[in-house]
User: Fold these one by one.
Assistant:
Number 1:
Amino acid sequence: MKIAVIGTGYVGLVTGTCLAETGNDVTCVDINVAKIQKMQAGELPIYEPGLDLLFHRNISQKRLTFTTDLALAVKDAQIIFMALPTPPGGDGAADLSYILGAAKDIAHLITDYKIIVNKSTVPVGTADKVSAIFKTYTDIKVDVVSNPEFLREGVAVDDFMKPDRVVLGTTSEHAKKIMTELYAPYVRQGNPILFMDERSSELTKYAANSFLATKITFMNEIANLCELLGADVDAVRKGMGSDERIGKRFLFPGIGYGGSCFPKDVQALVKASDENVYDFKILKSVMEVNELQKTILVDKVITYFNQNISGKHFAIWGLAFKPETDDVREAPALYIIKALLDNGASVSVFDPEGMENVKSIFEDKINYATDQYSVLEGANALLIATEWSVFRNPDFEKMSAIIADRVIFDGRNLFELAKMIELGYYYNSIGRALIE
Ligand code: NAD
């Protein structure tokens, strides 16, 4: 099939590449000229494991091309995917200007029937709004399909190639048939394609992300309570997770959820609820608790240094909002850095992939190290903000020689408590006994 993908971010580029991988002819469009030039030159603009192989293979086999020319991309496309940003607007509601603007542009360009698929996370009613735009600006028939994306950064290629489910919101029988054919290669193992109406499909994405954010937040509160009650959150987590109704996944406590999705999606669902005079109390608490959790490590640091960290120097391991991505949007590390700087401390950071993105935020306000050991030089303590595998089993001898005070605040519970006792560290983690 001939496909256009509008927007080449984490979702659009993975979608376009993975659709090309099953033999489709895909043209990806973006307004970011530098990004398109980079991809035309065969360079990936993001870090996403496994993407480079598929990206290069499909470019060389001419199934995957990049352009800034929307008209060129939509001309022959049977299906047009929109993978555009839906950032929070000033009032917390999702900003639909990218989606509605692109819909209007496409409406002016098309000369025959198209299926318009929305992959962005959008409020309920957006498919209706997009359909209305097409009706206003063209006589050409289109079917607008809601197809929320559930991929996770860091494992996005796997998630796209073998999704747990594909959700398709449409009442058009023709669109159903075409979309079923398009997705057939991805659900061969029997995972479902779930057809539903557009509004239910749109809400499914917000409900899923908000539920996951709630699950994380619940565990963060259990962890905070563990510290006060002298319980161990690892034991509690395993005890809870063995119950199949709860499940083992997503029960790891930490320093709050971040990323480009959970914070904005929870906020957008709360906003949509408020607009419909529904007080979504749980989600409001989730947002409130998460705000506090993002800087809980800094609170611990300040307590340790007798309420004064002015002039102290801190090393941070991990900047990305989670491992295996370079995405630092809404990453807890950013809040930690800001809180440390606001309290008069200085900061050195290291992340395997997120350095460039953080440089554009903090510029020369912090120091950027080249590896996980040199970042420790001169630090009064190490703070761990992302659970990259490379941090899990460090050379403690090397570390201890650099960081004389042996003080670690671990927001991701990377190390065994017994090991830290043996090594003689002060080790303050989340929901577990304090080692001093
Ligand atoms: P992103 O910010 O990484 O990428 C968006 C891209 O769209 C950018 O490259 C931008 O230049 C481009 N763009 C903006 N306006 C354009 C226009 N008019 N024409 C062409 N390109 C344009 O965003 P993302 O992370 O890929 O997210 C896209 C959507 O998917 C959002 O609604 C998000 O909530 C949702 N989503 C994201 C993820 C994720 O893990 N990132 C997962 C599921 C769903």
Note: The radius of gyration is 23 Å.
Number 2:
Amino acid sequence: RRSVYNPTGFESFNMGGKIPLGLKRKGLRIVVTGGAGFVGSHLVDRLIARGDSVIVVDNFFTGNKDNVMHHFGNPRFELIRHDVVEPLLLEVDQIYHLACPASPVHYKYNPVKTIISFFIALLIFIIIIIVMMMITNVVGTLNMLGLAKRVGARFLLTSTSEVYGDPLQHPQVETYWGNVNPIGVRSCYDEGKRTAETLTMDYHRGAGVEVRIARIFNTYGPRMCIDDGRVVSNFVAQALRKEPLTVYGDGKQTRSFQYVSDLVEGLMRLMEGEHVGPFNLGNPGEFTMLELAQVVQETIDPNAKIEFKPNTEDDPHKRKPDITKAKELLGWKPKVPLRKGLPMMVSDFRQRIFGDQKNPAT
Ligand code: NAD
Ligand code: UDP
Ligand code: UDP
């Protein structure tokens, strides 16, 4: 069956996209792969609140049922334990494809699972066991594109600023092709997402699938994995636990941190809008890791110590999104600066780390 994509979500979609007064918006059927994860679960909250029906597809590799439990019992919500590497048959209007072992620690201990590049894939085909593991980004994305093609759904890929690698252009504009080491420790993630972007554009050009591509910059907020090794979650958890903040290298490398609600707003605007992308979605506020440590000290514990540790290989020296395109074409820009967003994340971490116990850091 090939259903007709109805971008307005209104039953009156054949009325030139205009919604006559008094007509109720028809809820869409939306799949969110990776919907039990950090970003996915916040997206699900917004979609459910908007009146849509949401199917979360997640294998709980890094996600958690707790993130979506508050929707259990809602007839517009479904949760399917499924690995996107396996084919999936559903009838839907939109697919938000977030499933991916995302955090550095997770993708480093299972690197082949996030590998991609067709060339590497060809070699890997020779080694059956690696073929078995090689996946989420290629096969998972391929399956979701196949699903989108079959049912005429619109497909959104959550790609990453990592496609720019260790960028030689600053800030990064979408037209920059990046500087990625194809054989380094981070490559499984970077190249995985680059190949996912390639597949997405091939299905768009070759099969007419409606696609959208977001390049997401470092995002933080409530429900982030506590011990996944990312810098914001590490610093916040360390400060709360009265441990030293671990700064890797000299701490002068930069990142731009976006609060999760800003990202979700950007993803939804991208999905509903007319433009394929890719679009950078990130907060241009740029911080060195030492500056970030200082903001965490200000927010949680001014006496928190800093401990320097060796940096990881191929760590990008700087990263900051140019969001001119998203501003102009999606009417989007982030609203929550780091010093406003961080306290909201800290309350969530405090609750999850200490539960009802008294927090020793206060
Ligand atoms: P996350 O780890 O919290 O969420 C990913 C979800 O995908 C998890 O629930 C996990 O269980 C699920 N998953 C992984 N492999 C799967 C598979 N094979 N089948 C089904 N489900 C699977 O990560 P996140 O931070 O919420 O990231 C969401 C998306 O955004 C990812 O695609 C990630 O690459 C992208 N992204 C995130 C950031 C960030 O800073 N958070 C930055 C750039 C890009
Ligand atoms: N696929 C899926 N659900 C669907 C349709 C396709 O999971 O509803 C998978 C399918 O198993 C295949 C991939 O998507 O592995 C690509 O599908 P496509 O139809 O584009 O390619 P083909 O099956 O013709 O190779
Ligand atoms: N980093 C750090 N201390 C930590 C974890 C990370 O100084 O405890 C640094 C890391 O070396 C990198 C930056 O913080 O330069 C961002 O790392 P993260 O893994 O959060 O994101 P990514 O490198 O994927 O942008």
Note: Residues 87-89, 142-143, 146-147, 149-150 surround uridine-5'-diphosphate (ligand 2) (CB under 6 Å).
